[in-house]
Specification:
Length: 290
């Protein structure tokens, strides 16, 4: 059976389970369940702390897992596991912050104390940036209080809306240390007898998740257009591969069907309308395999 790690709590947990459910897998109903076996799909789900997912997958105990890109960087298990794909949720940035007006660039932190829950990630980054003598102070959470309470001069933390920082009287400075989202990670693979079955199940999971991403990000657009304007219309809606063109009873016209980014729906309809397209219909994609 394919063994999959899923965040059991925190910012990624609900969205990870929702995505797996949308991909046709069984998920736990009760927050107390630690393991769930989906017999039909041949997958076993293990509910673990998001921070620990990289440890289980990196050591080969579990085959694949969902975690945050920032958490994965921080876990230092690059040797055992790698990122397969971004999952489009749990988006955040990891940023430096300090009291308003105190710092303007990362280089200002040379020789200063910086509190964070992501020390490995931050230490690596300061080394890469060539900023010397930064004292990285590890805290488990509520990092925003570190400066006010005097344990650090600045902090580095996850920023989503920025509300937490603002409430603490802090502001970000410098470029983001990293941009994060939930990711799927996979181990090196095993030499066991069932290696082929595991690989097949992993491939299936990846295709299903890609299908969910596409179904969430794209809509199906149908419209009629004069044959003479077809090429211009295709340029507006090129589709993922190539749009479907069907003949109409009126030989001067054709019907076009194409997948388009959901976010651009109205802009594309306006452009098509201006070009002379009519009967423009948009439908959501329930599921897909690309
Ligand atoms: N608003 C947010 N707050 C915290 N983490 C977020 C947010 N948005 C996205 N994330 C992502 O979620 C992951 C952190 O998950 P989680 O909050 O469960 O960890 P944690 O803060 O270490 O745990 P906990 O708060 O339960 O001690 C990271 O990958 C982070 O980038
Ligand atoms: O930019 P925002 O939208 O305000 O979100 C970011 C905040 O949320 C997280 O804290 P969490 O609630 O997980 O507490 P923690 O610091 O104890 O982990 C994170 O550590 C930031 O503090
Ligand atoms: Mg948290």
């Amino acid at each position: 059976m394919l063994r999959v790690a899923v965040p059991n709590k925190g910012a990624l947990s609900e969205a990870a389970m929702a995505m797996l459910t949308e991909a046709g897998y069984l998920q736990r109903r009760d927050r107390k369940e630690l393991v769930l076996v989906d017999e039909e799909n041949g997958v076993e789900f293990f509910y673990l702390r998001p921070r620990d997912v990289a440890v289980y997958v990196g050591s080969g105990i579990l085959h694949v897992g969902i975690t945050g890109r920032d958490l994965f960087q921080d876990a230092r298990v690059e040797t055992g596991a790698s990122e397969i794909m971004g999952l489009g949720f749990g988006r955040s940035t990891f940023r430096l912050a300090g009291p308003r007006g105190a710092f303007s660039a990362a280089a200002d932190l040379a020789g200063k104390r910086v509190a964070t829950s992501y020390d490995a990630l931050l230490q690596q980054w300061f080394a890469q940036q060539g900023i010397p003598g930064v004292d990285v102070v590890h805290l488990d959470g509520a990092v925003e209080s570190a400066v006010r309470l005097g344990v650090a001069d600045a902090i580095a933390d996850v920023v989503e809306t920025g509300n937490t920082l603002k409430a603490a009287g802090m502001e970000t400075f410098g470029e983001p240390v990293m941009v994060s989202e939930a990711i799927l990670i996979s181990g090196k693979g095993t030499d066991h007898d069932d290696a082929e079955a595991i690989e097949r199940a992993t491939g299936r999971l990846i295709r299903r998740l890609q299908g969910v991403l596409v179904a969430r990000q794209y809509v199906m657009m149908d419209y009629d257009i004069r044959r003479t304007d077809l090429q211009a219309a295709i340029a507006i809606t090129p589709g993922l591969e190539s749009p479907t063109i069907s003949p109409l009873a009126d030989e001067g016209w054709v019907a076009v069907r194409s997948m388009v980014p959901a976010k651009k729906t109205n802009q594309l309809m306006d452009e098509l309308y201006d070009l002379g397209a009519r009967a423009i219909l948009v439908t959501t994609i329930h599921a897909c395999r690309v």
